Write a sequence for this structure.
């Protein structure tokens, strides 16, 4: 019996013991719930970090995909540009050769010269149109066959599910 306990009746002392036990149990519950809250905050911070990492990886993959896609389309454009330059050069040579032949034959002032130039111009335009068609077909092939690669969301989802705490509540 502690000092001062003689002032209380046995019923009062029993009430104090019950009150102390209730306070102890309340303290245990409070500690348990604080621990759970800490785990939830830690899990939430981890989830936020994982989501941010996934979003960053997704944006990086998106930028890489777009760069690769534009690079492939650019390569088609460069090839087609050189083909166009070659066609133009070829038909300019034909035009100059035809005009030189007409001049040598003394027919450069006749109506044959414009008709001949017009025919060469039509052939040149047809060749340039075929190059445009090939370029379009190549670009459509790239567009159709291009495979975009992104981070796998299933990995992040599995990690998130693994982080969800499975609480078992103690019985007090």
């Amino acid at each position: 019996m502690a000092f001062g306990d003689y002032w209380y009746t046995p019923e009062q002392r029993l009430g104090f013991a019950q009150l102390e036990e209730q306070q102890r149990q309340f303290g245990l519950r409070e500690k348990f719930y604080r621990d759970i809250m800490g785990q939830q905050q830690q899990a939430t911070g981890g989830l936020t970090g994982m989501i941010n990492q996934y979003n960053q990886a997704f944006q990086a993959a998106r930028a890489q995909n777009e760069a690769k896609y534009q690079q492939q389309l650019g390569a088609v454009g460069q090839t087609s540009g050189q083909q166009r330059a070659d066609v133009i050069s070829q038909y300019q040579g034909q035009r100059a050769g035809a005009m030189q032949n007409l001049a040598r034959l003394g027919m450069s002032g006749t109506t044959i010269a414009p008709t001949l130039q017009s025919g060469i111009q039509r052939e040149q335009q047809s060749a340039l149109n075929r190059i445009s068609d090939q370029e379009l077909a190549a670009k459509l092939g790239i567009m159709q066959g291009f495979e975009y690669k992104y981070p796998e969301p299933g990995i992040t989802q599995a990690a998130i599910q693994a982080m969800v705490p499975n609480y078992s509540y103690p019985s007090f």
